[in-house]
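Box 3.1 A note on notation
Throughout this textbook, protein chains are presented in two layers. The first layer is the amino acid sequence; the second is a token string describing backbone geometry. Keep the layers aligned when reading.
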Amino acid sequence: MLLRTIILICIALYLLVLFYGTVIGNYGFTEISEDYNSMIYTMSDNPFPQDIIVAKLLPFPNKTKIINAIEYQNPKVRNFAIMATTKHFKGIKGYSDYRTIIQCFAVFKEINHRWNYVNDPKEGDYIATATESLEYFSGDCDDHSILMAAAVRSIGGTPRLIHTKGHIYPEILIGSLIDLEKVNYLIKNVLFVKESKGKIIHYHIDERGQVWMNLDYTAKYPGGPFMYEEILGALTLN
């Protein structure tokens, strides 16, 4: 009888705490439902961690030019990113803790839907600035990575660029493995349902245990397959 009373009191207190959290907008019934759905979905459809094959780290190619080209404070870049957030996923309810990531995914959707791959001149690399690429949404992998990184950073996301032997591609910081559960659910069930149907979410984990997700022009959804090459370097923009 005493144990039953204690259990009932604990349940009542728990419900009161959730009700209070719902009223003041912190953590309530909606948030616990989102957590439960994300956990159950991840248990049945695990994302796939791609091992990072790191060769001897080399200097990031054209590092200074690339950093200067990522014009995330340029009004044209920010206005483009804002436009993308009003065009895609604006009506998504809940998931307030992941608003920035959802908005960055909107940027990904807009850029990758419009991107046209064009080679550099034969004489060597041409590094286009983010504002240049906004003109025609065309260029090679480094031009795409620069525009993606600039637009993502302009609205509060944390991007990084990965350098492999013959490729550069952008990633976005998702957070912890718990955050990955939520983002996995969002991609597969809310944001990119058609594009990711029957597909696996790929990601990297860095030396600090943080999860990074692929935003390459070859990906149809965030976390699409990587181009499997050894990683020679990473350029984090924060």
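The CA atoms of residues 69 and 129 lie 4 Å apart. The first strand starts at residue 48 and ends at 49.
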